[in-house]
Design a protein that fits this description.
Blueprint (H helix, E strand, L loop, with lengths): L2 E5 L12 H15 L3 E4 L11 H15 L4 E5 L5 H14 L3 E5 L8 H13 L5 E5 L1 H4 L5 H8 L4 E6 L4 H10 L4 E4 L5 H6 L4 E4 L2 H16 L3 H21 L1 H11 L16 H14 L1
Parallel strand pairs: 1-2, 1-8, 2-3, 3-4, 4-5, 5-6, 6-7, 7-8
Length: 288
C-alpha cells in the first residue's frame, strides 16, 4: 500500500450528475500519464461532500471497473451519518477496494471518545483495513500523539492520511509507529514529509503533476535533497498559480487541455470565467 496516490477528481456534467466516460478518462490519465501507484477515491478532491450516497457508490463502481487490478484503490467512506459510512465501506469492500479511509467526524465538536467510537463502530461491521483521514484545517479536529496511538491500537487501523503542517507531530508519529502507513496530504509539502520518511502521499495535483511528485519522493528517499528541492520549487510555483485561479476548476481545465473530459465542478463551486479558462490553459502550457 506504499506509494503515491492521486486524490481522484470526478467528472460531473452541468447538472451535477456523475459523467461516467469523463471519470473513466480521468482514471486512465492518472494510471497511464501520471503513473501513480493508486487512487484515493471519493475524497475532498472528488467533491465527495457535495454528492449523494448513490453517487458515491456510482463513483466507486466506475473507478473499480476502469482501474481493475492495475493500481491500489482506497475508498474514502467517511460521513457524518455513520450508517452511510458503514454502508459505503461495505459496498467498497465488496467491490474489492484494498482499504477504506474515513475523515474524522466534523462540524459538531465531537470529543475524542466519540471519534474513536466512530472508527471502531465502522470497523466492527466491515472486513477491511482503514486509514484515518486527518485534515484539521477543514474538520477542526486536532489529535495528539497519544490519541493517534489509541486509534492505531485497533488492528484494522493501518495508517493515516496526514494533511496538516505540524511536522513535529508527523515526526513523532513516524518515530512511535514505524509499522503504520503514513501518507503526506499536502502536495506543496511533499519534500518536507518525504525527508521524515513517510510511506507515500495522496495529492490533488497528482492528477496532472504526478511525474514531478514521484521525482520529489524518490529523490528525497535517495538523499538527493538539492535536486528534490528544485523540483518542489517548480511544483509549488505550479500549485500557487493553480490555487490562485481556483484549485479544482483549474485542475479540471488542465485535464481538458490534455484531452480528458474532466467535466464541471458541482455547485456551489463556481465555474471558471473565460479569463480563468485561458489562465488554466496557460498554466498547462507553462508547466506540463
Amino acid at each position: 500500500m506504499k506509494g503515491l496516490y492521486s486524490a481522484l477528481m470526478c467528472s460531473f456534467d452541468e447538472e451535477g450528475n456523475v459523467h461516467e466516460q469523463g471519470l473513466r478518462e480521468i482514471v486512465r490519465h492518472n494510471i497511464d500519464a501520471s503513473k501513480v501507484d493508486g487512487l484515493y477515491v471519493n475524497g475532498s478532491t472528488g467533491e465527495n461532500f457535495l454528492i449523494s450516497k448513490e453517487q458515491k457508490k456510482q463513483v466507486f463502481e466506475i473507478v473499480k471497473d476502469e482501474a481493475g487490478q492495475e493500481v491500489k484503490l482506497i475508498a474514502q467512506i467517511g460521513a457524518l451519518n455513520i450508517d452511510e459510512a458503514i454502508e459505503l465501506a461495505q459496498f467498497a469492500t465488496t467491490l474489492g477496494y484494498h482499504a477504506i479511509s474515513a475523515v474524522t467526524p466534523f462540524y459538531y465538536k465531537f470529543d475524542f471518545e466519540e471519534i474513536k467510537d466512530y472508527y471502531s463502530t465502522i470497523l466492527e461491521q466491515v472486513d477491511n483495513n482503514l486509514i484515518i483521514y486527518s485534515i484539521p484545517a477543514l474538520t477542526g479536529v486536532n489529535m495528539d500523539l497519544e490519541q493517534f496511538g489509541e486509534l492505531f491500537e485497533h488492528e484494522k487501523v493501518i495508517g493515516v492520511k496526514f494533511t496538516a503542517p505540524d511536522f513535529f507531530l508527523l515526526e513523532r508519529i513516524r518515530h512511535a509507529f514505524p509499522n503504520k502507513l503514513i501518507y503526506s496530504g499536502f502536495d506543496e509539502m511533499l519534500l518536507s514529509a518525504s525527508v521524515l520518511n513517510v510511506d507515500g502521499a495522496i495529492g490533488s495535483t497528482f492528477n496532472v503533476n504526478g511525474t514531478r511528485a514521484r521525482q520529489i519522493f524518490e529523490l528525497a528517499q535517495s538523499g538527493q535533497i538539492e535536486e528534490a528541492r528544485e523540483i518542489q520549487r517548480v511544483t509549488n510555483d505550479f500549485i500557487a498559480e493553480v490555487s490562485d485561479n481556483g484549485l479544482y476548476q483549474t485542475i479540471k481545465e488542465v485535464l481538458k487541455s490534455k484531452g480528458v473530459n474532466a467535466g464541471s465542478c458541482r455547485k456551489p463551486m463556481k465555474s471558471l470565467t473565460d479569463d480563468g479558462i485561458a489562465k488554466a490553459r496557460q498554466i498547462a502550457e507553462k508547466y506540463l
